[in-house]
Amino acid sequence: MTGAVAELRRWAASEAMALTGRVQGPPSAAPGRPASTVADALRRIGAVHPTVPLPGVRLLGKRAAAADLRRDAPRSCGGAFRVLRTRDGHLGLSPPP
User: In 3D, which of 23, 34, 74, 22 has the Cα closest to residue 58?
Assistant: First the structure.
């Protein structure tokens, strides 16, 4: 299994994949390695604090489900994120409420 396929499976298993993509389309892969990055961070925290119970990567999807968030690309599921066109590409902003 290639790294890209493994990462896509991790992203789908996180249950957050349901939040990525256009509202009328299918879920999509997120750019980068979001599920692996969160899993790595949780492992590092667990190494420093081995007695603290930590959630798994599925926390990403469960938190969104608890807040009743839905995908709405190109905006974030919470509605604040925007992609702005710039002279040399794009810029993503997520201002606080």
Answer: 34
In this structure, the chain runs to a length of 97
Q: What is the residue extent of each domain of the chain?
A: 3-93
Q: How far apart are CA 53 and CA 39, in angstroms?
A: 14
Closest CA to 8 of 22, 26, 24, 28: 28
Full pLDDT tens readout for the chain, 97 residues: 678 888 888 888 888 888 888 888 898 888 888 889 989 999 999 999 999 998 888 888 887 788 888 887 777 777 787 788 999 998 888 777 6
* Whole-number Cα distances in Å, 77 to 18, 23, 55, 70, 90: 10, 10, 21, 5, 19
